[in-house]
Amino acid sequence: MLRIDRSIYDQIVAHARRDHPDEACGIVAGPVGSDRPERFIEMINAERSPTFYRFDSLEQLKVWREMDDRDEEPVVIYHSHTATEAYPSRTDVSYASEPGAHYVLVSTRDPETAELRSYRILDGEITEEPVEVTGAPTGR
């Protein structure tokens, strides 16, 4: 199960909506071994595409080094789908290289509804998991 604070959930959804019609991407870092997503890190989609995302390699190197310095790891790796459901594509599965991470997808196909789902992806196997949003709802 992914437990995520309302403020981080809202930041992920806001980033996905802001970058629409292109896919948005980023991570949420947390203390190594904790499985606690604590630090939201919005990243650049180097592809600037509505159907594909890729972290900018220099930005990714900087972020991963920063996490190492802070004894953090990527707890959540997120991106958006702009026209389809929040389910990993074959490409998403092929790029899933962090075995301990929660892979979060947000669909922005409906501007009125936030469809956020989380998966574990290990050795090409996709397992959906429940998402528990903690903390008070923010004003809308």
- Strand-pairing-aware structural class: alpha/beta
Number of strands: 8
Number of helices: 3
* Fraction of helical residues: 10-25%
Order of helices and strands: EHEEHEHEEEE
Description:
This protein has 140 residues and is an alpha/beta fold. Helix content is 24%, strand content 35%. It contains three helices and eight strands, in the order βαββαβαββββ. The strands form two sheets. A six-stranded mixed β-sheet has the order 3-2-4-5-6-7. The radius of gyration is 14 Å and the shape is globular.
Per-chain topology:
Layout: E1 2-5, H1 6-19, E2 25-31, E3 39-43, H2 57-69, E4 72-81, H3 90-95, E5 102-107, E6 115-122, E7 125-129, E8 131-134
Parallel strand pairs: 1-8, 4-5
Antiparallel strand pairs: 2-3, 2-4, 5-6, 6-7
Short characterization:
The chain has 140 residues and is α/β, with parallel strands linked by helices. 24% of the residues lie in helices and 35% in strands. The chain has a six-stranded mixed β-sheet with strand order 3-2-4-5-6-7.
